[in-house]
Amino acid sequence: MNAHDIAQYAMQKLQETGAQQYACQAHTSAKREFNVDGGKFSLLRTTIDNQLDLTLIKDQKRGKILINAFNQEAVDEAVRDCLAAAEGSAADPAWELVPGAQRKFILGAPDGDMDQLFARTQEMLAAIGQEYPKVMVEQMIVAHQRSEGIYLNNLGASYETVEGLYEAQVMFSGHDGDRSSSFNFAAVVTDQLDKPFLDQGSMRQNLADAEKQIDTVATEGKFVGAVVFTPDCAGDVLGELLGNFVGDGVILDGTSPWKDKLGEQVADPRITLSAAPRHPGIVCGERYVSDGYLSEDYDIIREGKLNQFMLSGYVANKTGKKRAPNSSDSLVMQPGDQTLKELLSGIERGLLVSRFSGGSPASNGDFSGIAKNSFLIEHGQITSAVSETMISGNLAEMVNHLRGISRETVRNGYSLLPWFAVDGITISGK
Fold it and tell me: How far apart, in Å, are the Cα atoms of 351 and each of 239, 400, 425?
């Protein structure tokens, strides 16, 4: 059975449970990919994935089941399990689905051009070998994925999606004789093949950095200085900030330091950060949420003020706060008015951080970890690649100690982010 037929059948069986509200989401995808190992093509394969997500709410009790089989017997069993899960749970009036619209979305490139994709893959391998001779491509995965989905609930929501995207992921390191850099990574997702993969996202920058990181120096001493986060690293750092201050868990349990700061200044006025899956810079972003409503872009932080918590409908109902207009993490940050060169020029001593490895921040936003694939900044210039360097600080203080945001941004299909620099970070070497 196809996604449409299995969804219709599932809705019929859910209705028979006597649930007051119910929904199903059927999704199927076909991924055709090339694998490259050690610089040589090693695999060509197609993988098929089916998923059926069932939800029902009966007497204010919720059940939810996810299966990967598209046949009537599997659906019958899943509906029984979903009902049992609901009946075994506690009643909670915060659970609800919402009336929706009827829409069909065709996104990206549903019909992929595999010949051109193969040519782009060969082109990238050759260009890396020619332009970055000290880089070893340890693995490359290049693929086209076509996805079809349907969402239905008994309150009138009906959404269909047909989408297609190309993705390229490269894992690599720099080598020169017995010396080597640490592992590095770059990835892009796009809906067209009009330009080389190397010219997208942070591909070229990360490859060039890998060659420079073959030789590193250990940072001397411990000092408080400036840190510039690259767009790749910025996404991770901002994700930690949002999870710690505005996400479901911390708002529900009341541990967020920002829980009572809606509409107040929580960051530098130059910071506007959005969850924007419909932004033209985001490839095949979210179009609807599993509760039944259409996704809309929104500002989480607008000119430094907390504009919106990132709350699901359930947590919004539990807390009395407004639900977020989407459930995505497609982050878009407003660029600044300085070039990256200008941003660096005023830093006497600090770090350019491309990758950060650390544990979960404390509830108050304190964080620490190792700066990887990173460089020392001295007197406004990027100098040595560094090793054995830790950074620590506080996320809330960080966004209030902003030095600046770059005019340049990086679009990788997942996000659209600039470089940004902050003061007050503790940098510790040996």
Answer: 20, 18, 10
